[in-house]
Amino acid sequence: NDQRIWQVVHYLRTIGPEPGIDAPEVEDVPENPIEFSIQSAGLGQRLYTRSCLKCHGVYGKGDTEMREFLPTHPSDLTNEQWTYGDRDGDIFLVIKNGTEYEMPAFADELSEERIWHIVNYLRTLGSEQP
Fold first, then answer.
1. Left if phi > 0, otherwise alpha if psi is -120 to 50, otherwise beta: which for 62?
2. Residues 29, 33, 39, 44: is their CA dihedral positive or negative?
3. Fewest Cβ atoms closer than 10 Å to its Cβ: which of 30, 55, 71, 103?
4. pLDDT bucket at 40, cuts 50 / 70 / 90
């Protein structure tokens, strides 16, 4: 029931590493060096169209025909539920390095600057899209 679920949630929030045990290292997440602007988002949209649209679709919902062919469905980029983190740097690293699932790495196809423009464009996607 709901009460028991909340009890578990509260308990889990109290769990942490034992004193003296270091938390696992987390990869440094880069800061976005390109300030958001309409121009940056526009360039990001053009790059998205060339590199990302096939899987993630026109509006970023991941609702393309690729859902039928890939074991892991393309992510919906409009719902703000980012599996690998929601900071610009997290998104940048996923685009650059890919994931263990079906998301390919784009480091060989896109410069870091271009990836940052795509990140800026992704920030414009949201529930207002059809």
1. left
2. negative
3. 71
4. very high
